[in-house]
Amino acid sequence: MAPKKAPEYTFPAPMDNDTLVGHADILQSFMNAWNARDAHPIHPVWMLTGPRGIGKATLAYKIAKNVYGNVGDFFIIDLARNIDKDGKNKSDGKVISVYTVRAMIERMRMSSMSGEWRVVLIDSVDELNTAASNAILKLLEEPPAKTLFLLVTHQLANVLPTVRSRARVEKMRPLTIAQLRELCAKFIPDADISTATLKLANGSFGKIASLKSSGGDVIYEDLIELLKNPRASYGDIMAMSKKIAPNPALHGILLDAVAGFGLADMYPATTHAIADIARVNLEPEIAVFKIIADIKKCL
Fold it and tell me: Which CATH superfamily is domain 22-171 in?
């Protein structure tokens, strides 16, 4: 009998997602400031920061949509719209180029005569290369009139201090288990999401989406079972490595296993070992095998 094919899941991009769960306090703070902008000028730069997958970009787009009737132009900077020096699409890159930022600034100059509000959404600041960050900084030093900047960032520590100092920083909290269940019921109602998977997500629905899309939740449960099994062989470890290694998005479950077993001393070394897989071009299966074997030795 052929193995049962894992169900395929699709999740809307933040731009197309009208479902925001949590973060109502930040949305209300913005709307209060926006609605009172004639009496009290609104801060031109709002930075939404917090772990990946908790709804920062969804909130940013919701804010933009809520004010869209009052804006003349909407500019988006992200990897999907990334361009190279020749203006050609470079959406397969890992960093946002300065050419993308410069092109946006030029379009802003062309729209400045309209007198309407404009929104600039950057998703995310973490992905701007150094030159692009400096170009944004110059823009923020003297923000254009009637322009609202919405900056999404996953690691506040990675943002230039000079950029942070010019923004109103809103720290967004991870989602609760109840909020994660609400999102699961909305987007993957037919999926069996265990409490273990919900806890594994650490408040990130994006992580649940990634795990379900890749089958990572099942692989994680198999990994934990393997690590707990005193009779597991090197062959079993290699078989598990072959499941995890081909998909870099699954490498993080090794860190989840380290955390799950309370092996805090292993966390830094495991983090470096995972990073080395891509940075040093190691053979993924062998590298993952060694990580799993090292975890098992500590149990």
Answer: P-loop containing nucleotide triphosphate hydrolases (3.40.50.300)
